[in-house]
Amino acid sequence: MSRLLVTVDIVLFTIRERVLHVLLIRRLARPFENRYALPGGFVLEDESLEAAAARELREEAGVEKVYLEQLYSFGDPKRDPRGRVVTVAYYALVSETQPLRAGSDASVAAWFPVAQLPTLAFDHRKIVECAHQRIRNKLDYTNVGFELLPEMFTLGDLQLVHEAIVGQALDKRNFRRKITQKAIVKPLKEWRKTGRKPAQLFRFSDEVGHIH
Amino acid sequence: MSRLLVTVDIVLFTIRERVLHVLLIRRLARPFENRYALPGGFVLEDESLEAAAARELREEAGVEKVYLEQLYSFGDPKRDPRGRVVTVAYYALVSETQPLRAGSDASVAAWFPVAQLPTLAFDHRKIVECAHQRIRNKLDYTNVGFELLPEMFTLGDLQLVHEAIVGQALDKRNFRRKITQKAIVKPLKEWRKTGRKPAQLFRFSDEVGHIH
DNA sequence: TCAAAAGTGTTGAAGATACACCCATGG
DNA sequence: CCATGGGTGTATCTTCAACACTTTTGA
To answer: Cβ(A31)–Cβ(A111) under 8 Å?
Structure first.
């Protein structure tokens, strides 16, 4: 009945330039000094795990009100050289347009394409891979895809998100049919006028299925 | 950076008399004295989470070498009246024929139908529901169903397992077609001669997909 | 001879995939 | 005028759901 150190680590995804990226923080302290690691930190005595994850996201990434979901807990006794640390991993999704607020010091926090990560501290690479796999799986039967978009978006935007996550091109007509007939988006009367040709804007049609 | 108590709790499923059951332990100590709770206990300083879960299953349920998978971590600050305890929940599956060894004292450990649980200690009811949901979901795209069966089984046995988990009857012909054409079982040359009519025995066809 | 579980095909509906062209606009 | 992304329909295939009767055996 020993007390253990408990942390949360968060895999924060976004899509930039059509590619899925993960936010990493350069460590300033030992161990793994100067290595990149996931944002995260210790769980306080009186906060829930999810609250801890949200707080760390706020403090380390300057991000607020994101979609946040528990991923998996990692507790190998050797995973942290300082001693026994159990981490509860979360993943989170933000749209590219949602600005990272103050608190995220550009010199230490940076986005990396999920396919080209630097060497990470601890077992964080494994955690990122686990999270990537999870969102790929959930893409089909939930609406995680939307969480990476701003409130209004075009079907083209949504398709780019799906393509970035699964890592391959999708057929435009099939994609649009699938999305529209599931009735998980609702068309607006507004049109985006930037871009080559005006495009209809959409919005989620209310809260549907975040299953875990 | 405070140290927290970390436990594992295990939802151990089996099928008895065609109904999905969960193993519960009657608590002898406070809090929740005399209430039923999941088998579980504190994670030791130098064992992994999964090792802790396996150890608790051995110590409290007398069960060895079962299918064991992490479920979810629960860390509400108020979930344990004694103080801050984070639990990493697992679920496990055993076949009805696998005997519960010594160590499981019949007076404290008992099987309950998952649909008729007594009032449980802590947030254990929520944990059981979470686990039940998980195996229901995994039934379709993994072979969790097999873990509840002995090494050789008939398709009728397997169908009963599926029916117990989803809680409703399935069409025999559709079920058999689905199973056999996925090639996840391989037919043996042996036939079970007990029962009304001889039935062909099957076995898993090697390790396929335990995805998490 | 009856009760219980084993075994076996077909049809229709729904969903998924493959595939190509014209349009509106900004540069 | 051309490059870019927006928008649209059909044919095919696969997958899933519904559905009923005969056989073997032990009691």
So the answer is: no
Strand (E) or helix (H) holding B21:
strand B19-26
Q: What is the DSSP string of B61-129?
A: I---S-EEEEEEEE--TTSSTTS-EEEEEEEEE--TTSPP-TT--TTTEEEEETTS--PBSTTHHHHHH
Confirm if A23 and A105 have CB atoms less than 8 A apart: no
Minimal Cα–Cα distance from A154 to chain B, Å? 32
pTM above 0.70, yes or no: yes
Q: Give the whole-angstrom CA distance, residue B91 versus residue B126.
A: 13
Q: Which residues of B are less than 8 Å from A85 in CB distance?
A: none
d(CA B148, CA B146): 5
Determine the Cα–Cα distance for residues A38 and A145; give it in Å rounded to an integer: 22
Q: Which has the closest alpha carbon to A103: A134, A40, A58?
A: A58
Q: Can you name the residues that pair with A4 across neighbouring β-strands?
A: B4
Q: Which residue has the tokens 């998996």?
A: A72
Average pLDDT of A34-59? 96
Separation of alpha carbons A13 and A31, rounded Å: 25
Closest CB from A46, A72, A212 relative to B70: A72
Instruction: Say which of B4, B47, B212 has its CB closest to residue A77.
Output: B47
Domains of chain A plus CATH, in order, are: 5-123 (3.90.79.10), 141-204 (1.10.10.10)
Shortest Cα distance, chain B CAs vs residue A36, angstroms? 21
Closest protein residue to D18 (Cα–C1'): B171
What is the C-alpha to C-alpha distance for residues B165 and B181, in angstroms, rounded to an integer? 21
| Per-residue pLDDT at A41 | 96
Report pLDDT for B195: 79
Give the model confidence (pLDDT) of A131-146 as tens digits.
999 999 998 888 888 8
In this predicted structure, what is the pLDDT of residue B205? 81
